[in-house]
UniProtKB/TrEMBL annotation:
It comes from the Bacteria. Belongs to the methyltransferase superfamily. RsmD family. Its EC number is 2.1.1.171. Gene3D superfamilies: Vaccinia Virus protein VP39. It catalyses: guanosine(966) in 16S rRNA + S-adenosyl-L-methionine = N(2)-methylguanosine(966) in 16S rRNA + S-adenosyl-L-homocysteine + H(+). This is Ribosomal RNA small subunit methyltransferase D. It is an enzyme of class 2 (transferase). It holds the Pfam family Cons_hypoth95. PROSITE patterns: N6_MTASE. Keywords: Methyltransferase, rRNA processing, S-adenosyl-L-methionine, Transferase.
Length: 196
């Protein structure tokens, strides 16, 4: 009889820039968790380079933490990582301890509940939900209704390439858009006071 392995399966990702460049971080292999590829992260953080230093970032569907930890590594003053999956959350906490980062705050709750509880504005927001959940439009609307975006905030959005871009608020102006394999990703700028 074959021995069963009860240990959870894990993958690894690499921080590609900043103070933790080259550091490898584990992430659990849970359904719907897709770490943003190195190539995509490099492009996105090249786009964000003028804005990242000293910024306040929100990673709403943190998963592996690839985007949030990359932002912290590159000089973000504060990064809030939100993850609903308990196993992924525990790994995020462990990775934050390994990195010894006091500026990363990790919460185990849904993006919807986190948005309702947060009481500060953010300069950069990452929105990369599990694709099957189809949460892009609702999340964008919730961010606006709870006033969580600073004027000029940068919003990163990732979604399946085979899908049309989600409906987003008119106050979000598309700055950049690219495709990598089966993924499309965009960078938007929020203009406060614009009509929706």
């Amino acid at each position: 009889m074959a021995k069963q392995n009860n240990k959870a399966r894990t993958g690894a990702l690499r921080i590609i820039g900043g103070i933790w460049r080259g550091r490898k971080l584990a992430f659990p292999e849970v359904e719907g968790l897709r770490p943003t590829s190195d190539r995509t992260r490099e492009t996105v953080f090249n786009w964000l380079q003028p804005y990242i230093g000293g910024s306040r970032c929100l990673d709403l569907f943190a998963g592996s933490g690839a985007l949030g930890f990359e932002a912290a590594s590159r000089g973000a003053a504060e990064v809030v990582l939100i993850e609903n999956n308990r196993q992924a959350f525990m790994q995020l906490k462990q990775n934050a301890e390994v990195l010894q980062t006091p500026n990363c705050h990790i919460e185990n709750k849904s993006a919807e509940h986190a948005i309702g509880a947060l009481n500060k504005t953010f300069d950069i927001v990452f929105i990369d939900p599990p694709y099957q959940a189809d949460l892009w439009t609702k999340t964008a609307s919730d961010l606006l209704s709870h006033n969580l975006l600073s004027d000029g905030a940068m919003i990163y959005l990732e979604y399946p390439a085979k899908q049309d871009r989600p409906d987003l608020p008119s106050a979000w102006y598309l700055l950049k858009e690219k495709k990598a394999g089966d993924v499309k990703y965009c960078l938007f700028e929020f203009h406060a006071g614009e009509d929706d």
